[in-house]
Amino acid sequence: MADVVNRTSLISFVFAILGMSSLCFIDAQKDGFSVELIHRDSPKSPLYNPSETTSTHVTNALQRSLNRANRFKPTSVSTKEAQPDITPDMAEYLISISIGTPTFDILAVADTGSDLIWTQCKPCSQCFQQHDPLFDPTQSSTYKTLPCSASQCQKSEGISCSSNNKCQYSVTYGDQSFSKGDVAADTLTLASTTGSPVAFPGTVIGCGHNNNLTVHDKTSGIIGLGGGDLSLISQLRTSIGGKFSYCLLPRSQTDKSSKMNFGSNAIVSGSGTVSTPLTKKSPTTFYFLTLEGISVGSNRLKFTGSAFGTDKGNIIIDSGTTFTLLPDDFYSELESAVSSQIQLPKLDASILCYDATNFKIPDITIHFTNADVKLQSMNTFVTVADTISCLTFAPAGDIAIYGNMAQMNFLIGYDTGNQTVSFKPTDCSKNGAAEVFTLGWLNLLRNVIFSLIICHLI
Fold first, then answer.
1. Which of 9, 77, 204, 411 fits a disulfide with 426 by CB distance 3.0 to 4.6 angstroms?
2. In this model, does residue 129 exceed pLDDT 50?
3. Cis peptide before 137 (omega within 30 of 0)
4. Could you tell me which residues come within 8 angstroms of residue 261 by beta carbon, excluding any fewer than 6 positions away?
5. Residue 354 and residue 347: Cα distance in Å, rounded?
6. How confident is the model over 222-235, as pLDDT tens digits?
């Protein structure tokens, strides 16, 4: 009750101050915000298929993870492409955005493994089937194609200059799908879960006029959240201080949406938080961490490296890959260590599975540099049928990717300025409610008071 009273008093105080500072508030409002991340298998997702079973969901997720791993291989990245190979059907999370003035709503794939923000546009000489209307740039008063002299046109791979001095992009995907079109700038708006929509004028986007993708007709593009120059994260770097975080819900909680946080809302701190360095490597799209080992109970297995390297930056953290993928040899060591502590017969499967759901799961700890992340049982085993449980790790040749099932119920923060990733055990069903509410209003109050001081000085 006291908490409610305190919040009510805080809100009243803030709005009282707002009445005195409306002329200067816009300049001071660089506060954090949060958006919804919708899992593809959630009833909230337009990709949801009610006829599919949990077993089908998990089986498909494993296949998508293995297919997705191919695009992370160093040999698959072409310097002639704006981003590494991706297969659009690998989408795990969706995000709603708006483009233009007036705003035009788009549902797109949220992808930490790519950079470019793009959608299908009119006129379209060749477009994949899309359920929603195409974005018409002529109807946006803030849409502008970029000239060849623009810095974004000169320094980005996969972007070229047309004969009529227009900056154009061409991106090719692993399944021979492609998207080609104009590089433009327009206002991008995100619907914040903690306040009013947040608009970012002049965001660089790709307006696709020639596209051929094997994608569901319920989505219309990709929101690149990688580390490259044209990603959403990089373009908003000044506004959000280079910080973003997310809290992914367990697969069992499909009635709710996960949250992605930006700016001051994305700060991860407090009891239980551990942080590990990000390693800058090529391609800059990917977020590289350093995995030193994995412990199963007291048995620590040393990680000797992957295709990305033997020491620093040997594993990629990726929210778009479901399973955690490991080099074959290291996966075999991990499977043996886990199975030695579970006295049950293994099923004949490509990963470790048991015909049981009620058994003691050994503690598994991921050892990143300077950060030991102790996983919960829901992070390490997944129920794929009524009586069958499988390990959430899988062999993937020489690739290492830290997947999203290992990240669920952790608040994971990326600080691209300080080059760190932080992990905090969190009940993600509650994250974004009371905690973000309080943080958001405190930050709002701080900025309002600051604006009053500045206005007084002016």
1. 411
2. yes
3. no
4. 32, 33, 34, 244, 245, 246, 247, 432, 436
5. 6
6. 888 999 999 999 99
Supply the Cα-derived Rg of the chain in whole angstroms.
23
pLDDT band at 14 (very low <50, low <70, confident <90, very high): very low
What residues have CB less than 8 Å from 30, skipping those under 6 apart?
A: 239, 263, 447
pTM: 0.80
3-state secondary structure 100-159: CCCCEEEEEEEECCCCCEEEEECCCCECCCCCCCCECHHHCCCCEECECCCHHHHHCCCE
Mean predicted confidence (pLDDT) in 303-316: 92
- Tens digits of per-residue pLDDT, 191-250? 887 678 899 999 999 999 998 765 555 677 888 899 999 999 999 999 999 999 999 988
If you search the block for the tokens 């009119």, which residue do you land on?
122
pLDDT (average), residues 29-42 = 69
From 31, 111, 115, 415, active-site residue: 111
Q: Which residues contact 383 (CB under 8 A, 6 or more apart)?
A: 54, 357, 389
DSSP-based helix, strand, coil % in the chain, nearest 5: 25, 30, 45
Element (H, E) at 27: helix 2-28
Catalytic: which of 41, 89, 186, 318? Answer: 318
C-alpha atoms less than 13 angstroms from C-alpha of 376 in its C-beta half-sphere: 11
| Model confidence pLDDT, tens digit, residues 181-190 | 999 999 999 9
Name residue, tokens 């604006």: 451
Q: Is 111 a catalytic residue?
A: yes
Catalytic, 318? Answer yes
In sequence order, what are the beta bridge partners of 118? Answer: 206, 222
Cβ proximity of 73 and 298 under 8 Å:
no
**258 within 8 A of 249, measured Cβ to Cβ:** yes
DSSP character at residue 360: P
CB within 8 Å of 281: residues ≥ 6 apart: 288, 308, 309, 313
Contact criterion met (CB below 8 Å) for 246 and 260: yes
Task: Return the SS3 of 7.
Answer: helix
Q: Model confidence at 414, in pLDDT bands (50, 70, 90)?
A: very high
